[in-house]
Amino acid sequence: MKYTRLTKEQFEELHPEFINFLATQSITADEWQKIKVEQPKVAEDELDVFSDLVWEGVLQKATYLENISPQQLFLFKIAETEMQLISLKISEEGIDITTPEGYSWLQQNFAEDTVEFFTANKAFSKDKSGDIFKLIQQGAIITKGKLYQFFEKIITA
Is-contact 138 112, C-beta < 8 A? Predict the structure, then answer.
């Protein structure tokens, strides 16, 4: 397995897709029930293969990621051959941008000396999807990129 197995909730959400996946393998609903009982290892393998297919599809479509901690914000833009980073570091005591109050403070004070901006570019390894998945494992979430685009305009202005 290349990524991680989907959660029970994710499998439930993707139930129609999983049925189609089994159908492409010529496995009917009755056969699936039988496999789960008589060949649990085969069933586990099928769940893993499906999970990897879902993850691969999601990772290939990802264009922006965000990872927010109490005093740092990491914004990633996924380009063809590299990822671009905009990072903010908050040095103001007592500010936690993961809270509504702290985030509001950041919106009003991003131009202050207590907010430092950093940028970087990093080429992907041979496994672009794997590189993106590692960021997700470290706490990043896939977004539409509004924050990245907002701060990109500020930095390039």
Answer: no
Alpha carbon 95 to chain centroid distance?
A: 25
Q: What is the C-alpha separation between 96 and 100, in angstroms, rounded?
A: 9
Residue spans per domain, the chain: 8-61, 64-156
**DSSP conformation class of 62:** -
- Whether the full predicted model's pTM is greater than 0.70, yes or no, is yes
Structure token pair of residue 146? 């509004």
DSSP string, 129-143: HHHHHHHHHTT-EEE
Using CA atoms in the order 139, 53, 56, 60, what is the torsion angle rounded to 10 degrees?
-130
With contact defined as beta carbons under 8 Å apart, do 107 and 97 qualify? no
> Model confidence over 61-97: pLDDT tens digits?
999 999 999 999 999 999 999 999 999 999 988 999 9
Angle, CA 46 vertex, CA 45 and CA 51 arms, to 5°:
95
Exposed, middle or buried by CB within 10 Å (0-12, 13-18, 19+), for 25?
A: exposed
5 DSSP assignment: P
In this structure, are residues 117 and 157 in contact, taking their beta carbons and an 8 Å threshold?
no
